[in-house]
Amino acid sequence: MPWLKLLHIAALVIWCGSLLYLPALLSYTLQLRKDAGFAQGSPPMPRFFYNSVATPAALAAIFSGTLLFLFHGLMGGWLIFKLGAVVLMVVAHGCCGWLILRLEMGIYRGVKTASILALLLALAGILGVLGFVLAKPLDWS
Asked: Where in the cell (predicted)?
């Protein structure tokens, strides 16, 4: 099953990169929208990136991680904490999707603050996953 582990790691790297890039893209799009006034429609890049890159990578990472868990019977205290960190990443992902919808509706209030919050949640989740995976060889329960 090395291909499954490779798929999981590759999807996780793409998802983590997307979670770090999306808040910056949202802030840039917010600035474009404020500067353009009513003359410009919403740039499609945030939605395209979210739907075509970030979400498929997230689904592939979660699905392949679930298969790894089922096939290898991984258990331990580290796994519960890792899944908690993954929940933070999922919340950051959902927050970015919500912010994209707000931008498309023309609601700009709080987008920058929420983008920073999404970035901080993503960073906490990413660092948590990395830390708990690296602590796994210590075999703590």
From this structure: Cell membrane
Question: Is the alpha carbon torsion for 72, 74, 80, 81 positive or negative?
Answer: negative
What pLDDT is recorded for position 93?
97
**DSSP structure class, residue 52:** I
65, 129 Cβ separation under 8 angstroms: no
Tokens of 12: 């996780």
Q: Which residues of the chain have pLDDT under 70?
A: 34-43, 137-141
Rounded Cα–Cα distance for residues 134 and 36 (Å): 46
How far lies 29's CA from each of 26, 38, 72, 75, 107, in Å? 5, 14, 43, 42, 12
Cα torsion angle, 5, 10, 83, 55, sign: negative
Tell me the CA distances in angstroms from 11 to 34, 56, 61, 85, 113, one per residue in order. 34, 8, 5, 16, 28
